[in-house]
Amino acid sequence: MNYSTDSSNTVYVGNIDPRITRDQLYELFIQINPILRIKYPKDKVLQTYQGYAFIEFHSKEDAQYVIQIMNNTVKLYDRLIKVRQVTSSLGAANSSSNNSKGISLPIAKLFVKNLADSIDIEQLGKIFNKFGKTVNKPEVFHLSTGNLKCAYVYFEDFEKADVAIKSLNNQLVANSRITVDYAFKENGKGNTKYGDEVDRLLNKEALKHGMLK
């Protein structure tokens, strides 16, 4: 999928019944705000819609308002559609695993705290890859105090991330007891973390349609 877009103006719409046409999708969302363009992929063989779309609006504020109005509120053929902001925060993590440009797909972001100084990026990757496929390399950093070594780890699949959390949280790694949990969302309200119901649904759709390969 080649789709260059301004991610701050774009929403990801998931759980769409394949009977919904592009025109119907346009007619639905144009009622909320003017649309710049829609990317609504079809299966190359079956020529049926794949159940998700990217819709770009003219401003970030327009996109945010659409999310507020449409997410988890509209049913199409008995399917409650999911509407989420497309962000560029994980663009680098996704760029090696799909052909999208500037689009951050729904992957599982973990926050790892209290790493031993001896643990480097390569070792950290090996530790987490035992539980499932990770996307790109971990991001290692220190908190503002400079003493607490932490990392972000990105899993392709939320179920694999769940196993990693269950197995590694509060465990000793290189003589340091680490904590592992889902990271807080950069633009989340109310300190929301990755891993909620909508995240998991969108992740399953992305895996099903090969968007993360």
Automatic annotation (TrEMBL):
GO CC annotation terms, alphabetical: nucleolus; precatalytic spliceosome; U2 snRNP
Major site of localization recorded for this protein: nucleus
Presence of the UniProt keyword RNA-binding in the record: yes
Record Pfam families: RRM_1
Keywords attached to this entry: Nucleus, Repeat, RNA-binding
Domain of life: Eukaryota
Compartment(s): Nucleus
The keyword Signal is assigned to this record: no
BP-aspect Gene Ontology terms: mRNA splicing, via spliceosome; positive regulation of mRNA splicing, via spliceosome
Span of domain RRM: 9-88, 108-185
MF terms (GO), sorted A to Z: RNA binding
Protein name according to UniProt: U2-snRNP associated splicing factor
